[in-house]
């Protein structure tokens, strides 16, 4: 056998105490590349971000359009922005189940044993998922345009709303990443994820104006991070305005990451 | 920092899972350049011990140092010194062999070019170059293990942990794996090997620690362990199960050792200080008019070492049909892995 089946006889190389920032970024991108390769090999991972936006956008628009806004076309500015937030959330939910399934495989033992930043195996797939959010947002907007949606924010507003949706999906995925690190089975992550996803999407102005809800419910709707994202997306896409809502949405998303990324890394390093 | 002569120094390691104490105060000292075997049955705490040393599990109590680096205080440094090959191949099923090795190489800080070169070289060394572009899910158990070991060697770690490297492999693949490990050792690596097979520890390890129920019950070279249970065993199967006690009495008279009985199967296992004494036992049985169906002389098995060291077998409760043989079976289909 060749010389590579050998190791240093003596352990006298310089040892680093912690991975550096540059190394952490490079390791995260490497893990993102792995997630991307896996995605391409398993096209089922694109079902939720392709079929769902197509189906939901058309379905909700035709079902609720007449009842809520008088006609379908008048409802489109509401429903398109609502569906954008909803698909971002559902697409990010799968991050938790996939991480859990992935962590149950032996390869995560190796990731844990390698001298790499603890966040890299968690952050890498989240970076690769940007592609999924991008597809979902693009398709939703495209279906809306095909159905007659004419966003008042123009091209710039739509692009800004598109980017915000992707950022929101990435941020919210950290909630599910955390669930993936603390729960024992992918099924459990899925079930809990649903319990989080439904109130977050439906207790928001995604589909109906919040004024039609009882007052006590409106109190929750107001603090729901998904509401922040929806309000911001509407301001950007329908009016083309960078309002305070946009700032709040960005702050809200950043806060989710600031809370859930560190606790995810902590439970990942502890309990695997 | 790394001036110590010991590759591994652990004292009083403890790991509990709820009420269950998986590792209960294990001490280990492994010298540089040594192959150290940790031998024990399923559930003895081998893998848990190894995972604590490899920073894969937190250490509940006790202290461990790898080349003088404290495992609890500096896990990131320990990870730079150790390569781990797990019981279940820790490679990515959905990627090809090359993609796996390049991925790990990149994570270790190699450039894309260097990672691809190292991957190619390792695949060739391990006889896997033809499978380079195949997804791991299509690999056999033996190929996965080899790839897994190759992945552990990418960083050329001075200490390598092999967790049951041949469990579930067929005898031929097992032999190939042994050859690879021998090459590794010849290159000067320090190896910590866990195994359920005495003959594996015997073939590869310089020193062996036997652990059972989370505690170390013996330590020494394989010679020392074997002499503690007699050099070999005569396994007899009687035609008439009811003569087991009589046969045991004859055997004890001839050898001076008390045989281990499996009365349900009419089995008598006689420890022999010297394999030539088997003939004396058989002659004694013929004189006593006891007839046998099979007789064979074997090296001590893990089960017998266990029996001698701990007073209980490795899996005798589940396996009334000759527990002594169970530990020697290697013909488990590859798909198990």
UniProtKB/TrEMBL annotation, chain A:
<dbReference type="InterPro" id="IPR051784">
    <property type="entry name" value="Nod_factor_ABC_transporter"/>
</dbReference>
<keyword id="KW-0812">Transmembrane</keyword>
<dbReference type="InterPro" id="IPR000412">
    <property type="entry name" value="ABC_2_transport"/>
</dbReference>
<dbReference type="Pfam" id="PF01061">
    <property type="entry name" value="ABC2_membrane"/>
</dbReference>
<keyword id="KW-0813">Transport</keyword>
<dbReference type="InterPro" id="IPR047817">
    <property type="entry name" value="ABC2_TM_bact-type"/>
</dbReference>
<feature type="transmembrane region" description="Helical">
    <location>
        <begin position="130"/>
        <end position="149"/>
    </location>
</feature>
<dbReference type="GO" id="GO:0043190">
    <property type="term" value="C:ATP-binding cassette (ABC) transporter complex"/>
</dbReference>
<feature type="transmembrane region" description="Helical">
    <location>
        <begin position="155"/>
        <end position="179"/>
    </location>
</feature>
<feature type="transmembrane region" description="Helical">
    <location>
        <begin position="191"/>
        <end position="208"/>
    </location>
</feature>
<keyword id="KW-0046">Antibiotic resistance</keyword>
<dbReference type="InterPro" id="IPR013525">
    <property type="entry name" value="ABC2_TM"/>
</dbReference>
<feature type="domain" description="ABC transmembrane type-2">
    <location>
        <begin position="44"/>
        <end position="271"/>
    </location>
</feature>
<keyword id="KW-1133">Transmembrane helix</keyword>
<keyword id="KW-1003">Cell membrane</keyword>
<dbReference type="GO" id="GO:0046677">
    <property type="term" value="P:response to antibiotic"/>
</dbReference>
<comment type="similarity">
    <text>Belongs to the ABC-2 integral membrane protein family.</text>
</comment>
<feature type="transmembrane region" description="Helical">
    <location>
        <begin position="246"/>
        <end position="265"/>
    </location>
</feature>
<dbReference type="GO" id="GO:0140359">
    <property type="term" value="F:ABC-type transporter activity"/>
</dbReference>
<keyword id="KW-0472">Membrane</keyword>
<feature type="transmembrane region" description="Helical">
    <location>
        <begin position="46"/>
        <end position="68"/>
    </location>
</feature>
<protein>
    <recommendedName>
        <fullName>Transport permease protein</fullName>
    </recommendedName>
</protein>
Automatic annotation (TrEMBL), chain B:
<dbReference type="InterPro" id="IPR005894">
    <property type="entry name" value="DrrA"/>
</dbReference>
<comment type="similarity">
    <text>Belongs to the ABC transporter superfamily. Drug exporter-1 (DrugE1) (TC 3.A.1.105) family.</text>
</comment>
<feature type="domain" description="ABC transporter">
    <location>
        <begin position="8"/>
        <end position="238"/>
    </location>
</feature>
<keyword id="KW-1003">Cell membrane</keyword>
<dbReference type="InterPro" id="IPR003593">
    <property type="entry name" value="AAA+_ATPase"/>
</dbReference>
<dbReference type="InterPro" id="IPR025302">
    <property type="entry name" value="DrrA1/2-like_C"/>
</dbReference>
<dbReference type="Pfam" id="PF13732">
    <property type="entry name" value="DrrA1-3_C"/>
</dbReference>
<dbReference type="InterPro" id="IPR017871">
    <property type="entry name" value="ABC_transporter-like_CS"/>
</dbReference>
<dbReference type="GO" id="GO:0005524">
    <property type="term" value="F:ATP binding"/>
</dbReference>
<dbReference type="GO" id="GO:0005886">
    <property type="term" value="C:plasma membrane"/>
</dbReference>
<keyword id="KW-0547">Nucleotide-binding</keyword>
<protein>
    <submittedName>
        <fullName>ATP-binding cassette domain-containing protein</fullName>
    </submittedName>
</protein>
<dbReference type="InterPro" id="IPR050763">
    <property type="entry name" value="ABC_transporter_ATP-binding"/>
</dbReference>
<dbReference type="InterPro" id="IPR003439">
    <property type="entry name" value="ABC_transporter-like_ATP-bd"/>
</dbReference>
<dbReference type="Pfam" id="PF00005">
    <property type="entry name" value="ABC_tran"/>
</dbReference>
<keyword id="KW-1278">Translocase</keyword>
<dbReference type="GO" id="GO:1900753">
    <property type="term" value="P:doxorubicin transport"/>
</dbReference>
<keyword id="KW-0472">Membrane</keyword>
<keyword id="KW-0813">Transport</keyword>
<dbReference type="GO" id="GO:0043215">
    <property type="term" value="P:daunorubicin transport"/>
</dbReference>
<feature type="region of interest" description="Disordered">
    <location>
        <begin position="313"/>
        <end position="337"/>
    </location>
</feature>
<keyword id="KW-0046">Antibiotic resistance</keyword>
């Amino acid at each position: 056998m060749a010389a590579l089946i050998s190791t240093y006889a003596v352990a006298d190389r310089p040892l680093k105490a912690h991975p550096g920032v540059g190394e952490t970024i490079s390791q995260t991108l490497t893990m993102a590349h792995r997630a991307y390769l896996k995605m391409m090999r398993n096209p089922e991972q694109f079902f939720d971000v392709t079929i769902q936006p197509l189906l939901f956008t058309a379905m909700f628009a035709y079902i609720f359009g007449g009842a809520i806004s008088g006609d379908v076309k008048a409802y489109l500015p509401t429903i398109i922005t609502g569906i954008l937030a909803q698909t971002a959330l559902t697409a990010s939910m799968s991050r938790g189940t996939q991480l859990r399934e992935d962590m149950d495989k032996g390869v995560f033992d190796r990731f844990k044993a390698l001298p790499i930043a603890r966040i890299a195996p968690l952050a890498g797939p989240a970076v690769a998922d940007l592609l999924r959010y991008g597809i979902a947002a693009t398709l939703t907007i495209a279906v809306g345009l095909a159905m007659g949606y004419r966003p008042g924010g123009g091209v710039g507003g739509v692009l800004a709303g598109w980017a915000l949706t992707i950022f929101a999906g990435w941020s919210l995925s950290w909630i599910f990443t955390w669930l993936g690190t603390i729960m024992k089975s992918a099924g459990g992550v899925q079930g809990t994820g649903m319990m989080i996803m439904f109130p977050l999407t439906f207790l928001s102005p995604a589909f109906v104006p919040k004024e039609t809800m009882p007052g006590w419910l409106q109190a929750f709707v107001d603090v729901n991070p998904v509401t922040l994202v929806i309000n911001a997306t509407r301001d950007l896409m329908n009016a083309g305005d960078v309002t305070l809502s946009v700032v709040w949405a960005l702050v809200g998303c950043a806060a989710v990451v600031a809370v859930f990324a560190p606790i995810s890394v902590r439970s990942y390093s502890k309990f695997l | 920092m790394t001036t110590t002569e010991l590759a591994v120094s652990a004292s009083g390691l403890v790991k509990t899972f709820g009420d269950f104490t998986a590792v209960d105060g294990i001490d280990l000292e492994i010298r540089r350049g040594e192959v150290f075997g940790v031998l024990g049955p399923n559930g003895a705490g081998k893998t848990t011990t190894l995972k604590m040393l490899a920073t894969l599990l937190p250490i509940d109590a006790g202290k461990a140092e790898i080349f003088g680096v404290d495992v609890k205080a500096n896990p990131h440094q320990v990870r730079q010194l150790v390569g781990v090959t797990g019981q279940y191949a820790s490679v990515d099923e959905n990627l090809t062999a090359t993609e796996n090795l390049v991925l790990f190489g990149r994570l270790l800080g190699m450039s894309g070019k260097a990672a691809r070169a190292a991957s190619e070289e390792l695949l060739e060394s391990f006889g896997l170059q033809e499978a380079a572009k195949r997804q791991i899910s299509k690999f056999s158990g033996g190929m996965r293990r080899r790839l897994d070991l190759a992945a552990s060697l990418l960083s050329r770690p001075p200490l390598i942990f092999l967790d049951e490297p041949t469990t579930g492999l067929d005898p031929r693949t097992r032999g190939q794996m042994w050859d690879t490990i021998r090459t590794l050792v010849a290159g000067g690596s320090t190896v910590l090997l866990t195994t359920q097979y005495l003959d594996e520890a015997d073939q590869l390890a310089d020193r062996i620690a036997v652990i059972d129920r989370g505690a170390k019950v013996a330590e020494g070279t394989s010679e020392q362990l074997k002499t503690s249970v007699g050099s070999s065993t005569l396994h007899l199967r009687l035609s008439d199960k009811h003569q087991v006690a009589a046969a045991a009495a004859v055997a004890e008279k001839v050898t001076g050792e008390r045989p281990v009985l499996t009365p349900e199967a009419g089995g008598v296992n006689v420890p022999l200080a010297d394999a030539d004494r088997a003939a004396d036992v058989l002659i004694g049985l013929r004189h006593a008019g006891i007839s046998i169906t099979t007789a064979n002389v074997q090296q001590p098995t893990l089960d017998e070492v266990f029996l001698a060291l701990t007073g209980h077998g490795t899996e005798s409760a589940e396996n009334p049909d000759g527990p002594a043989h169970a530990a020697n079976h290697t013909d488990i289909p590859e798909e198990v892995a």
